[in-house]
Amino acid sequence: MRMELDATDEVAARTASLVMREAGCCSFFTFSLVATGGRLRLDITVPEAEAEVLNALQAQATAAAR
Predict the structure, then answer these.
(1) Number of domains forming the structure of the chain
(2) CA–CA separation, 3 and 30 (whole Å)
């Protein structure tokens, strides 16, 4: 799952904090937070066996963005 985020210091800090918390409790997630060229991107991957969890997360993120 790839999310393009607002490239502000606040969003970057909140996202990094979320990534740290989630990585601590759900070790099957792999997170990549990249800030480059004035853009902020969060990539989240999981093993195939956990695809349903990632799909549910993506559905929640999509609903929240509306």
Answers:
(1) 1
(2) 14
